[in-house]
Amino acid sequence: MRQIKRNVLYVMVMAVTILVWGALSWSATAAQLAGSAPKEWPANPGKHQVVVSREAADKQQSAMIAAAEAAQPKEAKSPDGDKVWWYTEQLGIRIPCAITAEAVAYYSDLVKKYGRQLLKRYNEPSSRLDYHAGVKFHKEFKLAGKTFKDVHVVTLKLIFAQNFAATMTEGMHFEKKRVVVLDADGKVLHIAGDGPTDVPILAM
Fold first, then answer.
1. Residue 102 in this model has a pLDDT that exceeds 50
2. Does the N-terminal or the C-terminal CB of the chain have fewer CB atoms within 10 Å?
């Protein structure tokens, strides 16, 4: 009986998802047809925003955040031999396997670049980077079945979105979170959150 209920719920969720994506696709197509031809959108920094926040109460916390952002993922392989933080590209944009200082700088520069460009598009392009880093001390912290004592836990969260900035008819959005556990000396003890990133893409 429970399995039947699960199947019915799954079908309902899938039906709603299909309807929503269908509505979005129809809306995007209608907007494109209404414009009939792409137009030139002048550079507009207001449509391309960068928000970067690193919350640290003192120099020690700042050092902990820097150490967390410098840590490289163990199992990833760099496509070009540089510091590892991305593993593939979509729409010409690098997709992260880890949040590092280089990743934050890349998306920040990308959004700022879009804001300086004149782009020919059906709809006005936009993009945004939201990044937040924070650190807390824990006498005891449990993660992935492990228990850590007297550690600093750094949480990094990055959200990136662009609509019609990278290409004429496509947009993307993704979120990435990384948790880094460090000892009192700033040595990395554990990292959670690294790996492939789900990147939904909406096309007109």
1. yes
2. N
As a whole number of angstroms, the distance between CA 137 and CA 152 comes to: 4
Give the model confidence (pLDDT) of 152-192 as tens digits: 999 999 999 999 999 999 999 999 999 999 999 999 999 99
Q: Where are the domains of the chain?
A: 1-36, 39-203
Residue 148: beta bridge partners? 141
Nearest to 183 by CA among 157, 151, 159, 142: 151
Kindly tell me if the per-residue pLDDT of 3 is higher than 50. no
The residue behind tokens 């079945």 is: 145
CA–CA gap between residue 106 and residue 84 (Å, rounded): 13
Q: Average pLDDT over the chain, rounded to whole?
A: 86
When comparing pLDDT for 64 and 4, which is higher?
64
